[in-house]
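Q: A reviewer asked whether we had any structural model of the full assembly, not just the individual parts. We don't, so I'm hoping you can provide one. Inputs are below.
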Amino acid sequence: MQMFAKKRVEILIERALLKRLTDELVSAGVSGFSVVPLAAGRGQAGQWDSDGQIGDAAGMFALWCIVDPGRLDGLLEAVFAIVSRQVGLVSVSDVEVVRPERF
Amino acid sequence: MMMLNTINFNKGQPKAIRPPFIEMSLGGPVLALAVQNLVSPPVLFFGMGLGASLGRSDLSVPEAIARFLSLYLLISIGFRGGAEVAHQGLTLTLVATIAAGIALSGGLPFLAYAFLRNVAGLDHINAAAVAGHYGSISAVTFVAMTGALTQLALPFDGYMIAVAAAMETPAIFSALFIARTGRDRAEGEMPKDFLREIALNGSIVALLGAFAVGCITGERGMTSLKPFLLDAFAGFLCIFLLDMGLIAGRGLRDGWKSLSVPVAAFAWVMPLVGAALAAALAWLIGLRAGSTAVLMTLGASASYIAVPAAMRLALPAANPAIALTLSLGLTFPFNLTVGIPLYIAAAQMIAE
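A: Here is a predicted structure for the entire assembly that you could use as a starting point for your response.
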């Protein structure tokens, strides 16, 4: 089957910032994304756990979206404007998809 | 045994029956109430969570349940306040007290910032963020105070819940103002949606929404919801405080490294400053003893739900562990154990 090269962007972000990020992705023309809550982890600030957390200051989410390589730079600039000074990670990897017109 | 057992927890009882020790001099009642307060189930459950967490137990409350409990508590206290206002009606004192609350919430961060910068030596941006937490309020400390007052049959006004809601946000804007104008000017972000994000913050909407529902439905609504919102309240509060203890312990375990002794001392000095200013305002307005004690508690308590989220949006450079360890790990237990009996005793002297 023929496959088409795309970029997969993964963003780990704080709960408080999630809505700003998804709003920005929509206005940057990203056709779709998925969000999952993260249960626990470890980072520069040490160990964290979502158990028992009540406020919007705690908790992390992972967001994935797949985009055409030509749109990657613009997307990353928009994302960086939001996440550059926050807790989190942005990573980009190469993926192949079956239906390129969707991205 | 801290909780509210009747619907009209503050309905005109000017000469309510008080336990005899309340009439005694300051030392006796404060101590008796402090001991009574310490051995109440909610405080013990908090201590249990704190101990479990410090001992690295794997005891935990699932996130979804913790968020439900917080929603339940906000709706319960909001609804009860609303039902009480429906019963009493609006008064000039109410307006004056709300104004005093807003002044406290907006003003306390400036005092807190001055202390943190000049005495505790905290850096500009973290001092601004912590200051915001200390202007705002802790709804659970408010609940604990109203429970203690009910136990002593000391009446307070139902509209104090509206005062609590009004005090949630002004401190956030004071913290932003401080962050943007200080000597070491740091950029505080105020994007276009920030006002809406703050004003429609989930906890404020839950509190004020339930307050409105309580106002509209009044005593009839209260009768129908009593088994859920009032009778079950003490049990839910205990589980919630167990969770708070677990989080506070986790924060203390990881966060103590980022605290110096003067910064930690701030967490016990600032509540007294806030309570003293609140007491002065309550005296000027002429509030009764119960309401004075509640206003003092609001002035003394520090936020750990609404403000941390706002600070992540507005001052991302601030370290959230510092503010949360101070407000939840040190100030909250201080108010719960030492503060509440102290504020009640002081309020009784002031309001007499």
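A: Points you may want to mention in the reply: The interface with chain B takes residues 14-17, 20, 45-47, 49-59, 85-86 of chain A (CB under 8 Å). Residues 2-40+57-100 of chain A form a domain with the Alpha-Beta Plaits fold (CATH 3.30.70.120).
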